[in-house]
TrEMBL record:
<dbReference type="InterPro" id="IPR028098">
    <property type="entry name" value="Glyco_trans_4-like_N"/>
</dbReference>
<dbReference type="GO" id="GO:0071793">
    <property type="term" value="P:bacillithiol biosynthetic process"/>
</dbReference>
<feature type="domain" description="Glycosyltransferase subfamily 4-like N-terminal">
    <location>
        <begin position="11"/>
        <end position="177"/>
    </location>
</feature>
<dbReference type="Pfam" id="PF13439">
    <property type="entry name" value="Glyco_transf_4"/>
</dbReference>
<dbReference type="InterPro" id="IPR001296">
    <property type="entry name" value="Glyco_trans_1"/>
</dbReference>
<protein>
    <submittedName>
        <fullName>N-acetyl-alpha-D-glucosaminyl L-malate synthase BshA</fullName>
    </submittedName>
</protein>
<feature type="domain" description="Glycosyl transferase family 1">
    <location>
        <begin position="192"/>
        <end position="350"/>
    </location>
</feature>
<dbReference type="InterPro" id="IPR023881">
    <property type="entry name" value="Thiol_BshA"/>
</dbReference>
<dbReference type="InterPro" id="IPR050194">
    <property type="entry name" value="Glycosyltransferase_grp1"/>
</dbReference>
<dbReference type="GO" id="GO:0016757">
    <property type="term" value="F:glycosyltransferase activity"/>
</dbReference>
<dbReference type="Pfam" id="PF00534">
    <property type="entry name" value="Glycos_transf_1"/>
</dbReference>
Length: 374
C-alpha cells in the first residue's frame, strides 16, 4: 500500500503514535509518506520506504495569518497525485481531517477517490475542538472521513457526547513497541538517587492539563516519609509552575531533577519506581503506557482513558482528578512495601504487553484493507 500520514511533527502523543505507526508500516514494505510542517521528531529517515513532504506555507504582506490549512490541502493533493497514494490517514482532526477533506475534493476533479481515515487523539475533541471557532468544522470533517478511529473507549464516548457523529467510531488503542524497553539499563541509578532512595518520575509536555502542581505536591508529601527523588522529563508552559514551587520550597531543589526533553526515555524510565500522571484530561495516557512498558507502576488520576491503561490496584493506583491526598497515600503505600512494589512492577509490564505494537498494527492494516476493498 502507499499510505499518506498527516500529523504534527512535535513530541506530542499524536505525532509519536503517527510516526511509530508509519515506521512499522514502512518496515513491513508499505510506502509511507509523511506530510507535516516539519520532520516528525521520532522519524528515522534512514529507513527504507519512508518519504517526508514538508508543507510550505507561502507568506504575503497582505496575510496577517498565513493560510496553513490551504497549503496543507494543496500539499496533500500534490503528494497523492504525484505518488499515486492509496490511502490517507489523518492523526488529529484539526487541521488534518479538514484539509484532507478539501484535498479529496480537489482529487475528484482528477477522477481520483482516496479513502481518508481520521484518528482522534484527545485534545482535538475534548479541548480545542470544543471551541466555537473550530467546533462545527471538526464535526464536519470527522463525518466526512471514510473511517474514524479513537485511541480509547473513553474518547469515543466523549466524541459521541460532544459532536453529532453519523459514522461508526472504531476504537484502536495506542500502542508501544515493548522490545524497545528490553534494553539493558546502562544508565546509572546513582546519578539520580542515593542508595536507598526511591525515584518518582513524571513525563509530559508540561501543559496545564497535566496538573504539574499536583505532581509537585504529591512528591512534597511523599518525601516527608519516604527517602526519594523526583525526576521530571519534558518541556512546556508550566515550567513556570515548577520554578515557582521551587522558589517556595527551596529545600526540595536538590530533590527534583529537571531533565527537559530526552532522547533515551526508555533507559531513564527503567530507573523509576513510580510514575505520576495526575492529569485533568487524558484520552489515553501514552506516557503511562511507556512507563508501564519499562516496568514502572503508575499513580494517576481517573481522567478520560487513563483507567483503561492503568488498572487500579493492579498496575498502580487511580484516584479522582485533583485528589492529591489519595495519590500521596497510594504512593507511600506502594513505595514502603517492597513486595507490593515488585508485584505491581511485574503487572505493569505484563499489562503493557496487551498494547504491544504487534497486537495493534494489524487492526490498522485490516481497516486500510477494508476501505480499499470498497
Ligand atoms: O497530551 C497532550 O497534550 C498531547 C496530545 C496530542 O495529541 O499530541 O496527546 C493526546 O494524544 C495522545 C496520543 O493519542 C494521548 O496519549 C494523550 O492522552 C492525549 N492527551 C490528552 O487527551 C490531553
Amino acid at each position: 500500500m502507499k499510505i499518506g500520514i498527516l500529523c504534527y511533527p512535535t513530541y506530542g502523543g499524536s505525532g509519536i503514535v503517527a510516526t511509530e505507526l508509519g515506521m512499522i508500516l514502512a518496515n513491513q514494505g508499505h510506502e509511507v509518506h509523511f506530510i507535516s510542517s516539519n520532520l516528525p521528531a521520532r522519524l528515522d529517515m534512514t529507513r527504507a520506504n519512508i518519504f517526508f513532504h514538508k508543507v510550505q506555507v507561502e507568506n504575503y504582506p497582505l496575510f496577517k495569518f498565513p493560510p496553513y490549512d490551504i497549503a496543507l490541502s494543496s500539499t496533500i493533493y500534490q503528494v497523492v497525485k504525484l505518488y499515486d497514494l492509496d490511502i490517507l490517514h489523518a492523526h488529529y482532526a484539526i487541521p488534518f481531517a479538514y484539509s484532507a477533506f478539501y484535498a479529496k475534493q480537489m482529487l475528484k476533479e482528477d477522477n481520483k477517490d482516496i479513502p481518508l481515515i481520521t484518528t482522534l487523539h484527545g485534545t482535538d475533541i475534548t479541548l480545542v475542538g470544543q471551541h466555537p471557532s473550530y467546533n462545527k468544522a471538526v464535526e464536519f470533517s470527522i463525518n466526512q472521513s471514510d473511517a474514524i478511529t479513537s485511541v480509547s473507549e473513553s474518547l469515543k464516548q466523549d466524541t459521541l457526547k460532544n459532536f453529532h457523529i453519523k459514522k461508526e467510531i472504531q476504537v484502536i488503542n495506542n500502542f508501544i513497541d515493548n522490545k524497545l524497553f528490553d534494553v539493558e539499563n546502562i544508565c546509572c541509578r546513582d546519578q539520580f538517587a542515593n542508595k536507598g532512595e526511591k525515584i518518582l518520575i513524571h513525563v509530559s509536555n508540561l501543559r496545564p492539563v497535566k496538573r504539574i502542581q499536583d505532581v509537585l505536591e504529591i512528591f512534597k508529601n511523599v518525601e516527608k516519609s519516604i527517602n526519594s527523588k523526583l525526576v521530571i522529563i519534558g518541556e512546556g508552559p508550566d515550567m513556570e509552575v515548577i520554578n515557582n514551587f521551587l522558589s517556595d520550597n527551596p529545600e526540595l531543589i536538590t530533590k527534583i531533577r529537571l531533565l527537559g526533553k530526552v532522547d533515551d526515555l526508555q533507559r531513564i524510565l527503567k530507573l523509576a519506581d513510580v510514575f505520576l500522571l495526575p492529569s485533568e484530561q487524558e484520552s489515553f495516557g501514552l506516557a503511562a503506557l511507556e512507563a508501564m512498558a519499562a516496568g514502572v507502576p503508575v499513580i494517576s488520576s481517573n481522567a478520560g482513558g487513563i483507567p483503561e491503561v492503568n488498572i487500579n490496584g493492579k498496575t498502580g493506583f487511580v484516584a479522582d482528578i485533583g485528589d492529591v491526598e489519595t495519590m500521596t497515600k497510594y504512593a507511600i503505600e506502594l513505595l514502603s512495601d517492597e513486595k507490593l512494589l515488585a508485584e505491581m512492577k511485574l503487572n505493569a509490564k505484563e499489562n503493557a504487553e496487551l498494547f504491544d505494537i504487534k497486537n495493534i498494527i494489524p487492526q490498522y492494516i485490516a481497516l486500510y484493507n477494508k476501505l480499499l476493498e470498497k
